[in-house]
Amino acid sequence: MNFKSLLGLAVAAGVVVATAQAGAQTGKPGGTPTRPAETPRTTVTLRFDAKSCTASDRAVLTEAFALAIDHVAVGLRHIRETPDSQHVRTWFGTAPRKQITFVLDAVARRLAQPQSFTVSCNDNLCRQGPMAYTVPSASRMGFCQGFFRARLTGEDSRTGTVVHEMSHLAARTQDHMYGRTRTRGLSAKQPDIAANNADNYEYFIETLNE
Ligand SMILES: [Zn+2]
After folding, report:
1. Which residues of 69-83 are buried (b: 16+ CB within 10 A; e: fewer)?
2. Ligand 1 mean position to 30 CA, how many Å?
3. What number of other Cβ atoms are within 10 A of residue 101's Cβ?
4. Are strands 140-143 and 118-121 parallel, antiparallel or unpaired?
5. Alpha carbon distance 58, 53 (integer Å)
6. Do 67 and 40 touch, CB atoms closer than 8 A?
7. Which of 41, 50, 167, 201 could be bridged to 16 by S-S, CB 3.0 to 4.6 A?
8. What integer pLDDT is reported at residue 36 of this predicted model?
């Protein structure tokens, strides 16, 4: 969800900073792993909406954002090193690799600046039933019940949802199509649109291990 119609919405509630250790350091020291891990290698300090996010919400979100940082790094390396892989063609068809790389790089950079946006939890914008939403003009992201019920990695997961929402915030991607089948069709038939569609980035990252 992008909720473009809500652009300009003000963040009414105060914000608070919470720190959490995202997880044990795993994997090879130094370089970027070639396959996404299940345990974050990164620590992230998110800026939570003080009123809406419980301690348990914060822990769940901190883990998902940390893992998103790791998985986007793997995805960026994938497209830079193997731009014509089957995986890239599946999710982006013949779209310009430069554009895909630009979006993934923007996502990685914004994830590395977690104090530059606010995260809310199960607030009133969740009533419309999205897993999550983003208000780019307010640098705000909200996460809803569906997000907290989703699994950590894989298709339609918490980690992938963070990537989806961050692509709206960092690179102003749109929601042209949702869902695996339709986004794959988009990559085949309208690759330029796939390269600007948030779900294509979500699935590209979520299915790196397949
Ligand atoms: Zn969206």
Report:
1. bbbbbbbbebbeeee
2. 33
3. 15
4. parallel
5. 6
6. yes
7. 50
8. 77
Tell if the pTM clears 0.90, that is, is over it: no
Q: pLDDT value at position 9?
A: 34
**pLDDT score for 32:** 52
Q: Are 174 and 132 within 8 A, CB to CB?
A: no
164 C-alpha vs ligand 1 centroid, how far in Å?
6
Tell me, in angstroms, the distance from the centre of ligand 1 to residue 10's CA: 19
Task: Give the DSSP letter of residue 51.
Answer: T
**Cα 101 from Cα 123, distance rounded (Å):** 33
**CB 73 within 8 Å of CB 45:** no
Distance (angstroms) between ligand 1 centre and the Cα of 162 equals 10
Cα-to-centroid distance, 31 and ligand 1 (Å): 31
**What is the helix (H) or strand (E) element at residue 143, kind and residue range?**
strand 140-143
Among the ranges given (128-132, 185-189, 206-210), the one the predictor scored with the smallest mean pLDDT: 206-210
Residue 17 has pLDDT above 50, yes or no: no
Query: From the CA of 127, how far away is ligand 1's center (Å)?
Result: 16
Mean pLDDT of all residues in 164-178: 97
Q: What is the whole-number distance in angstroms between the Cα of residue 168 and the centre of ligand 1?
A: 7
Q: 55: CA distance to ligand 1 center in Å?
A: 25
Positive or negative torsion for Cα 117, 123, 125, 128: positive
